[in-house]
Design a protein that fits this description.
Blueprint lengths: L1 H13 L3 H23 L9 H24 L3 H15 L8 H15 L7 H12 L5 H12 L1
Helix pairs in contact: 1-2, 2-3, 2-4, 3-4, 5-6, 5-7, 6-7
């Protein structure tokens, strides 16, 4: 993942694609911030796995979606467009998002895998989903769906 990001950054520099370059630099900055935070927490290696990077990218997309919505509501369409362009660049590095049907199947499979029978097992189910589908589904939206299936 780091290599893909680095190669994309170099290509954007060569092509003088300022908008893409700016977004890629934001991604790198977010990754570096996370590494620094991990070192501060005592994780001396500070090496981020692809799953952690995917989580960072997913969070960046979600932040931009919220900003774009706020800009649209405020009538600032040019700023909303900028956020949407950044989302498109970030999403190039994320795996394909699962469809609603695929998310439902993944939830059912996770429930079966951990033998979940009640809402108390929700953490286990979410843990399985996060380990298998980081970057492929919105866990904020999945949580309530898991809860309704267990409750």
């Amino acid at each position: 993942m780091r290599n893909r990001l680095s190669a994309a950054l170099k290509t954007a520099m060569r092509e003088k694609d300022k908008e893409r370059l700016s977004t890629l630099r934001l991604i790198n900055a977010a990754i570096k911030d996370r590494e620094i935070a991990m070192r501060g927490e005592g994780d001396e290696a500070g090496a981020l796995t692809d799953d952690v990077i995917l989580g960072i990218l997913g969070k960046m997309v979600k932040q931009r979606q919220e900003s774009a919505r706020a800009y649209e509501e405020g009538g600032r369409l040019e700023l909303a467009e900028q956020e949407l362009r950044e989302i498109r660049v970030i999403e190039e590095f994320l795996p394909r998002q699962l469809s609603e049907a695929e998310v439902d199947k993944a939830i059912d499979d996770a429930i079966t895998e951990v033998g979940a029978t009640s809402i108390r097992d929700m953490g286990k189910v979410m843990g399985v989903l996060k380990s298998k589908y980081t970057g492929q589904m919105d866990f904020g939206a999945v949580g309530p769906r898991v809860k309704s299936k267990l409750g």
